Amino acid sequence: YAVFHEQKWTTQYSCPVTEWILIIGRAISIRGLAQENGTISENVVRSAFAATEEGFLTLVRRTHFIKPLIAAVGSCCLVGVIWRGTLYVANLGDSRAVIGRLGRSNKIVAEPLTRDHNASMEEVRHELISRHPDDSQIVVLKHGVWRIKGIIQVSRTIGDAYLKRREFALDPSITRFRLSEPLRRPVLTAEPSIYTRALHPQDKFIIFASDGLWEHLTNQQAVEIVQSNPRRGIAKRLVRTALKQAARKREMRYDDLKKVEKGVRRFFHDDITVVVVYIDHGLLQQRDASLPELSVRGFVDSVGPSRFSGVTAIS
User: Fold this and answer.
1) pTM (2 d.p.)
2) Which of 229, 248, 291 is nearest to 87 (CA)?
3) Which pLDDT tens digit goes with each residue over 63-100?
């Protein structure tokens, strides 16, 4: 299961990074690496991320002379893999995975599985400063928002090649991506944070979502919505609830927000992609089981068996 969140302000100049990453990711799949290694492990997941990053940078290298702004295209990446009763979650950027589990008194409790790689987080700023002690501009407060080099909020991505390798430096005349000085070392990384967790009978479902959802819903609010509503269309319900909150903050009606044109919506709310995975513990005990039911709301809204049926041994 995966959520990608590309930076929309770059795609208007070049190409939809998610399409390219999905193409590369299919060629360099976790499944394929698992077959080579005979298992899933943190190293297998890490290798898949590294191969996807290198594949995208190879694409940039081949095309940036024709489309130089492809070097400014990047995406957050959140991936979850269930293998033999263990959940692996790997994250770049500020998308988030949250598990809903039954706590005391049989009440649903939210447990975050990831941490946000965003300069708004003090620990992320400290991490950047410690890696770049000689760069006073590594994190800059700009219009009330912390940004890396005054440009980008997330510290880990696929792509954004101009912030990783000098060979992809952009023309300084492109003010939006102008660096105050030439790149001395990478300021972003594609090294994912990986979280491994055994699944227990109390674990009921996992929410994978881009930061647009979490801007308007707390972890606990999200799991309570999933727990208290039917499975069908649950991802869409989460998106709709977040958008209603966004409309309320703007002191406008939800129906009016829906009428806002796509090119203008970013001023009202961020893009939102949600995947909800329900955990069937009976299936986890079977070998050669299909993947559990999931609900996705992003480019499409669908409920049913996962299309990612390539993992043929879940036990």
Assistant:
1) 0.81
2) 291
3) 988 989 999 999 899 999 888 889 999 999 999 999 99
- Find out whether 94 and 118 touch, Cβ atoms under 8 Å: yes
> Which has the higher per-residue pLDDT, 249 or 58?
58
**Which CATH class name applies to 2-118+154-304?**
alpha beta
β-sheet with 96-102: strand ranges across: 108-112, 96-102, 203-209, 274-278, 294-297, 301-304
| Alpha carbon distance 310, 292 (integer Å) | 13
* Residue 8 backbone phi and psi in degrees, to 5: -60, -30
Listed residue (95, 114, 111, 98) closest to 211, CA to CA: 95
Q: Domain coordinates of the chain in residue numbers?
A: 2-118+154-304
Angle at 306 between CA 304 and CA 308, to 5 degrees: 165
CA angle 32, 33, 39 (to 5 degrees): 105
Distance CA 297, CA 132 (A): 38
Q: Are the C-beta atoms of 147 and 120 separated by less than 8 Å?
A: no
Nearest to 1 by CA among 295, 275, 285: 275
Asked if residues 224 and 204 have their Cβ atoms less than 8 Å apart, the reply is: no
The answer to whether the CB of 208 falls within 8 A of the CB of 78 is yes
pLDDT of residue 254 exceeding 70: no
Q: What is the DSSP letter of 50?
A: H
Amino acid at 130: S
Q: Residue 306 to residues 134, 153, 214: CA-CA distances in angstroms?
A: 48, 32, 24
What six digits make up the tokens of 91?
């994250």
User: CA triplet 204, 293, 20: central angle to 5 degrees?
Assistant: 110
